[in-house]
Write a structure and sequence with these properties.
The chain is an alpha/beta fold. The chain has a single domain (2-217), classed as Glycoside hydrolase/deacetylase (TIM Barrel). It is 32% helix and 20% strand. The strands form three sheets. Strands 1, 2, 5, 8, 9 and 10 form a six-stranded parallel beta sheet that branches. It has a two-stranded antiparallel sheet with strand order 3-4. Helix 5 links the parallel strand 8 and strand 9. Helix 3 (86-104) runs parallel beside helix 4 (120-128). The longest helix is centred in the middle third of the chain and has 19 residues, at 86-104.
Length: 219
């Protein structure tokens, strides 16, 4: 039976609506957070690009919003990993993991590279910090387990027009895992929200797959 995993970046207000859909369909997911972006009150505002309000959730909201879901490390401040000194990157990774473990009182097993940026040196830092896997944004049809768990490539973004073709190909390949990702703020219209609800429902109703937590693939 194929395992389906998903993750969502940045800890924004639209995660609340997205999580309601996931709960309605008993779907599992990981949410990737940057500790310094979650302040006493929500922060952010209107986005011209997405034509909507995008806000990082307040620190006080996090535990209740994400209850029952997996939390992963997305670095302290969301820098471009290969464009800062390696020691600064180490601080970004190590400090964020410590803070998230303190906030949620759970081990943080996963990491997601901001902007997908990574190389061998930045990946080694993530491994040394104690993570079991690290996700890139290099969308490929992977074999599982990957040769290097610090360079875990997902199958596709959730908006990919070939989503169902890739999903079916993963089932036929026998690789055992299908992995998609995104940002909840990329759901901008009621039509998109409805389509996403249908997508999660269709996966949940598929007798040939099961939802899985990302860390469970490695533990």
């Amino acid at each position: 039976m194929m395992k389906v995993v998903q993750c969502w970046d940045d800890g924004v207000n639209d995660d609340i609506r997205l999580i309601e859909i996931l709960r309605n369909h008993n779907a599992k997911a990981s949410f990737n957070l940057n500790p310094t972006t979650h302040k006493e009150n929500r922060s952010g505002g209107h986005s011209e690009k997405w034509n909507k309000t995008i806000q990082r959730l307040a620190r006080s909201e996090l535990k209740s919003v994400y209850e029952g879901f997996t939390i992963a490390n997305h670095s302290m401040t969301h820098p471009r990993p290969v464009e800062i000194p390696l020691e600064d990157w180490r601080t970004e990774v190590v400090d964020a993991r410590k803070i998230l473990q303190d906030w949620f009182q759970d081990p943080i097993h996963g990491f997601v590279y901001p902007y997908g940026g990574h190389d061998a040196a930045t990946a080694q830092v993530v491994a040394e910090a104690g993570h079991l896997y690290a996700r890139t944004t290099k969308n490929v049809t992977p074999s599982f387990p990957p040769a290097d768990p610090m360079m875990l490539h997902p199958d596709c973004h959730f908006h990919n027009k070939s989503f169902w073709e890739l999903y079916d190909a993963a089932k036929k390949s026998g690789c055992g895992v299908f992995y998609f990702w995104g940002h909840s703020y990329e759901l901008c219209t009621e039509e998109q929200w409805s389509a996403f609800d249908e997508k999660i429902g269709r996966i949940s109703a598929d007798p040939e797959v099961t939802w899985a937590d990302l860390p469970s693939l490695y533990l």
